[in-house]
Amino acid sequence: MLDRVKNVGAEPLAVVRMLFRAEARQRWRSWLLLGVLVAITTGLVLAGVSAGRRTAAAFPRFIATHGYDAVAYGSKPLPKIARLHEVTSVTALSAPATAPPSCACTHAIGQEEFNLYVAPSKSLSHFVNLVAGRMPDPSDPHQILASFDLQDYGVHVGSVLRVPFYAPSQRAVYGSGHITPRGPTLELHVVGIEASEGEFPGDNGSPEKDLYATAALGRALSGKSIHFSIYYVRLVHGADDLPRFESDAQALGALGSADQITPASSVTSSIHPQAVGWWILAALSALVGLVVLAQALARQSLVESETHGVLRALGLARRQMILTGAARTLTIGIVGVLGGLALSFLLSPLTPVGEARLAESSRGFTFDPLVATVGGLAALVFLLGIGLLSDLRATRTESPEKTRVAGTSRLVGLLAGAGSPPSMLIGVRRALERGAGRNAVPVGSAMLGSILAVTALCATSVFGASLTHLTTTPTLYGQPFDVWLNLNGPPNVPTPMLAHLERMRGITGITGGIGDDVKINGKTVDALAGGPVRGSLLLTTVNGRSPHSDHEIALGATTMRAVHAHVGSTVAVSAPRPGGGSRTSSYRVVGTTVFPPDFGAGGLGTGAIFTLGGFLDAQCPPGRSQSACGRQAYEGGGGSYLLRFGRGPDGRAAATRVAKEYAASISYPVTPANLVNFGEAVNFPLIFGLVLVVLGITTLVHVLVVSVARRRREAGLLRALGFVRRQIAYSVWWQTTTIAFVGLVVGVPVGIVIGRAIWQEFARSLGVLPDSVVVPWVIVAIAAGTFVVASALAIGPAVVAARSRPASLLRSE
Asked: CA 614, CA 583: separation in Å to the nearest integer?
């Protein structure tokens, strides 16, 4: 290359072009690896940003296409609803009165969790999104769509549900209690899985679990079943028209109406953390990618600067060498950005996930022009800036002879004293020592990349295992019970139901409870009051204990922060009195507790717990009149029994019996929506760990390629002194495994500590039990996988180094 420079004229750009072509021919492998590194970083960042945008927009787009603002229902058709001034569109459905269906499911479907709707075939696509299977045949009354929520019960495409219907003669007694349906029982075949607005989990209670049939079923049940009329309505001014619509619908004879805008907003809020997670993942990937790219470009510039002194002696100006470096960086950047755009496009079918995926109508390959344009240009500009800084630093060297003194590793000295093979000594020295002069190779970035990758994998394995443990252990998020039964009266009054439940051998825990709103230190809080009937109180305490006496209270973590309280402090509780007004009294905080998301207490970390007597004291002053006040407070009120079953045959028998006998009032716990969207749907920490691993692998490969090229003279000298190819290859292998070993020694304990700390902080912020989990076999698998990957990465550079001839390695450049 230097000989060709002597023959070049004074044209600066001609020299730059010649130098660029010569460098490209000599260093294309390391340039290609840099391009791959840019492509991986750019592609993952663009994919993360695009996934966040699609996730954030998925449910609002779903509402715009399939949603509605309100629902009205009546015992007879209400065609005049469509002519109300505040109504823009109406979809009319029929709802046959049914008992809970039976099926070959994992557990029974309760009455309160189940609805069956009959809709015209053309209207189905207006308010449902087909997730799997196909739409039902309009001429077949036995084909239905099932809610995606019913998949948790074992319902799938091909399932058969036996649905009993109430006869028209039972209209007068329908809804008055548990009555046996006397209408027909039909076998309905699930041909598709759908998603509709009311089925998405939010923070306002349990989502609906619906079945949708065509008008053919309505015709088959004509005159044989009780039918209710349901109207899905869009309003002109959205939420502003809700009060007027409710009033007008009631005037037309509607039995009731319900706001759908607020629940939809709750669903959007529950999905939003997932979008934020994608954006945080993209930002962290960009940050790590920039650090890795800066190190890689600095390393490449240093390697290419070995000829700068000679080029200066031949008359090349510093700006020409900088322009050559800029041309190299631009080439790598263009190739890398184009590869990143292709990678983000290939990754697009994988997102969004969870509830956002159910709301998304398009699940194939997608291209986001805005993200691609802005992100691609930003990546190119950042890369050129980093490359320019690296080239400016590299071109400061005035002489190729200017070197730094190389340090000696103590480990290499110990290995030499122990009589280790020469290939091991050379490989370990190359991994730990930078080298000097023309043999200098920055190894710190490779070591740092190995440590970061192992640390990230171990930390994310701890976080991921702890998150899985949380989502699969209901006790940790406030549900140490198996089912709960809704009552028509207060739980402190003995009932035949309670006596019947207490006689069942398989029930190991029964807790009675009731709820209402109170003010704590001026903040409105959903409060629960309960007491154990059998066993301990079936609610989870994070720290401290549950209330034992009437003037003790336990708070959720979020509520604790909101009211500026702590365990041991005193709070002022204001509760409405049954006769009007309110009463304020003091309570001592004795613990932090977790509230199940479907208890109406506001979700994880939000709410307060009293004893039943303490809750009564909050509303009624002590004295003779307290019993009368208590009866008035509980009059017409409803509560719940929480039940926990034993794990043996008696427990299974009791669970089956309760599900059958109390199907109309039974409910099952649900996993909190924010845990589903953050943890079960997307394990962001694991994805970030994998991103670091990919970047670490690419960095290690680049170090190996640069090291082999940089130390080719050393390899030639070793071959001339009698080293065989196998020894040269083993030296590269020892270099790679040493880097991996250092990553494991430092990264495994640090990763476990960091993973536990992050998980405990995350769990406390949610208000759940911070129970961290370390899975030993996962850590062992990470260690084994690290060595396997390191060995595999060493194959290519080792073969290249071993096959080189001494004459070519020692030739003068």
From this structure: 13
Per residue in 589-631, pLDDT (tens digit) is 999 888 766 555 456 677 888 888 888 777 777 654 555 555 5
Distance (Å, rounded) from C-alpha 457 to C-alpha 534? 45
Q: E strands along 18-177, which residues?
A: 70-74, 87-96, 114-118, 128-133, 143-147, 160-164
Report CA torsion sign: 714, 719, 723, 726: positive
DSSP H helical ranges for 472-555: 496-503
DSSP label at residue 197: G
- The DSSP secondary-structure symbol of 354 reads T
Q: What is the pTM of this model?
A: 0.66
Contact residues for 417 (Cβ-Cβ < 8 A; gap 6+)? none
3-state secondary structure of 805: coil
Separation CA 551–CA 500 (nearest Å): 32
Those residues whose C-beta lies under 8 Å from the C-beta of residue 563, and which sit 6 or more positions away, are 520, 521, 522, 523, 525, 555, 571
Summarize pLDDT for 424-483 with one digit per residue, the tens. Answer: 877 777 777 765 555 555 566 667 767 877 887 788 788 878 888 887 888 888 888 888
The token pair that represents 652 in the structure block:
């299974």
Q: Which residue is listed with tokens 């629902």?
A: 71
Distance from the first to the final alpha carbon of the chain = 8
Residue 752's CB: how many other CB atoms inside 10 A?
Answer: 18
| Residue of 53, 58, 48, 162 whose CA lies nearest to 104 | 162
Tell me if 770 sits within 8 A of 763, measured CB to CB: yes
